[in-house]
Structure formats: structure tokens, C-alpha cells
């Protein structure tokens, strides 16, 4: 099965930039999606296909992917950005085909 | 506005059955792939099953042969029949809409499934 890795936690001060990495074999060749999940809430898609933002997602959220690493960047971090963030890919040769990373807890100091 | 509302969760015994439902509104349900994703307490997200718009199903290995995904397009509804339940199936189950091949762009609020003797 395809495996994704994420750091367990990232801490960032308000107004600064948070970067969350997602590692996977040749992940740069797949489309990476990112989700934000706040406590007791359903996940929200914040980035799809590596770099695209769904409508309603602030442009403070951006994505990039190359080689074995994808990155979600949150600029001008706000208290409301504190949440768990999950990367996710589709690998049709894997079982399961839809794979999530373990998640990164972003703490706003 | 896209809405997904799950129901049918609750308590089940090991070896028992539960049937989850997801009522969809606000979009042409017949045209979209639909998914079930679960999350155990304090754990990460885990894809469970998919049913695409053409009727093709797929399952993660641990539920294959025990869970059955289905849809009723006339009722804008998605279902998950869960048989031979195991304690490790305990989780919040989310219904999610598929988007551009691989993403899940809308999610329901989730329904809790607890399997215990």
C-alpha cells in the first residue's frame, strides 16, 4: 500500500507562515489534496490537485508538490487556522487506493 | 448549497449489522462519485468505500466482503450496509462527495458507529 508521512505537529505564531509537509514515493507525480479538520467538525477541502483552492478558501492557503514531498503553506496565520491538516492522494495501484496521511496538528501560539 | 446528512449510526454487537444512509441535496447526485470515510476517536481519516457514477464499487481490504456500498439515485441517497461488524469498525463515518478524480470536496457531519459486546 502507498504510505504518506506527515510531521505530528507544527507550531506557528500569529501572522507568521506555517509549512506542513507530506512525504510519499514520487508524490510529485500524483495529485495531492489537503484537508483542514477542527475539533468535532467534518474535514474541509482546502487544496486539491496540488495547488488549486476550492471557492471560499482564502488565498493564504497554497500548495506545492515535487519529487517525494508535497507542502501546504499557510501565510499570515490566524488563530482560526488551528486545526489538524491531512494530505491525501489516489493511487489506483494501491490497496486502499485513497490514502490519507496521518495528519499534522497546527498550533497557533 | 451542497448538503450531505448521514444517519443510521449507533451501537452494534460484534458479528452484527448496521446500515448507514446519506441523504444528498443541492447538486446532481447521479453525476457524482460518492464515498464513505471513517475516523476512529483520536485517530486520522481512513477511506472505506467508493461508488462511482457509473456504478463501480471499491472497498478497503479490511471491510471487503463485510460492507456493501449502494446508492439510490432517485432518492439522492447513498448507503453502507455493514455486516459482520468488528470492534475495530468503531468510528465516526462520513459520507463525502468525490471531486476531480481524487478529492472529497463536501462532507456530511458524520454518524457514530460503536461496536461493542
Descriptive notes:
The complex is a heterodimer of chains A (109) and B (117). Chain A has no helices and nine strands. Chain A is mainly β and 109 residues long. In chain A, strands 1, 3, 4, 7, 8 and 9 form a six-stranded mixed β-sheet that branches. A three-stranded antiparallel β-sheet of chain A has the order 2-6-5, with no helix packed on it. In chain A, a hairpin with a 6-residue loop joins strand 3 and strand 4. The mean pLDDT of chain B is 97. The A-B interface holds A 30-31, 33, 35, 37, 42-45, 48-49, 54, 86, 88-90, 95-103 and B 35, 44-47, 50, 58, 60-61, 94, 99-110.
The pLDDT mean of chain B sits at 97
- The number of helices of chain B is 0
Please trace the helix and strand order of chain A, writing H or E for each element. Answer: EEEEEEEEE
Largest sheet of chain A: 6 strands, mixed
Backbone CA Rg of chain B: 13 Å
Distance between the termini of chain A: 36 Å
Shape of chain B: globular
Give the gist of this structure:
The complex is a heterodimer of chains A (109) and B (117). With 109 residues, chain A is mainly β. Chain A has strands at 9-12, 18-23, 33-37, 44-47, 61-66, 69-74, 83-90, 98-100, 104-108.
Fold topology:
The complex is a heterodimer of chains A (109) and B (117).
Chain A: E1 9-12, E2 18-23, E3 33-37, E4 44-47, E5 61-66, E6 69-74, E7 83-90, E8 98-100, E9 104-108
Parallel strand pairs in A: 1-9
Antiparallel strand pairs in A: 2-6, 3-4, 3-7, 5-6, 7-8, 7-9
Chain B: E1 3-7, E2 10-12, E3 18-25, E4 34-39, E5 45-51, E6 57-59, E7 67-72, E8 77-82, E9 91-99, E10 103-107, E11 111-115
Parallel strand pairs in B: 2-11
Antiparallel strand pairs in B: 1-3, 3-8, 4-5, 4-9, 5-6, 7-8, 9-10, 9-11
Features:
heterodimer; A: 109 residues; mainly beta; six-stranded mixed β-sheet; three-stranded antiparallel β-sheet; globular; B: 117 residues; seven-stranded mixed β-sheet; four-stranded antiparallel β-sheet; 11 strands; 0% helix
Amino acid at each position: 500500500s502507498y504510505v504518506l508521512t506527515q510531521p505530528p505537529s507544527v507550531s506557528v505564531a500569529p501572522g507568521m507562515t506555517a509549512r506542513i509537509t507530506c512525504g510519499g514515493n514520487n508524490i510529485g507525480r500524483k495529485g495531492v489534496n489537503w484537508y483542514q479538520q477542527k475539533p468535532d467538525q467534518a474535514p474541509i477541502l482546502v487544496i486539491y490537485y496540488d495547488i488549486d483552492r476550492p471557492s471560499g478558501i482564502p488565498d493564504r492557503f497554497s500548495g506545492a508538490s515535487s519529487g517525494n514531498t508535497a507542502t501546504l503553506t499557510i501565510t499570515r496565520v490566524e488563530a482560526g487556522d488551528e486545526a489538524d491538516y491531512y494530505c491525501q492522494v489516489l493511487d489506483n495501484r494501491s490497496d486502499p487506493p485513497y490514502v490519507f496521511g496521518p495528519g499534522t496538528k497546527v498550533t497557533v501560539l | 448549497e451542497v448538503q450531505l446528512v448521514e444517519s443510521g449510526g449507533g451501537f452494534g454487537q460484534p458479528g452484527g449489522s448496521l446500515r448507514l444512509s446519506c441523504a444528498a441535496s443541492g447538486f446532481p447526485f447521479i453525476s457524482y462519485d460518492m464515498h464513505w470515510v471513517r475516523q476512529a476517536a483520536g485517530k486520522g481519516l481512513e477511506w472505506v468505500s467508493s461508488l462511482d457514477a457509473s456504478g463501480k464499487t471499491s472497498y478497503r481490504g479490511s471491510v471487503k466482503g463485510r460492507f456493501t456500498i449502494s446508492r439510490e439515485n432517485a432518492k439522492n441517497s447513498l448507503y453502507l450496509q455493514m455486516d459482520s461488524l468488528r470492534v475495530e469498525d468503531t468510528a465516526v463515518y462520513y459520507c463525502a462527495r468525490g471531486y476531480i478524480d481524487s478529492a472529497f470536496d463536501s462532507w456530511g457531519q458524520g454518524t457514530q458507529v460503536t461496536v461493542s459486546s
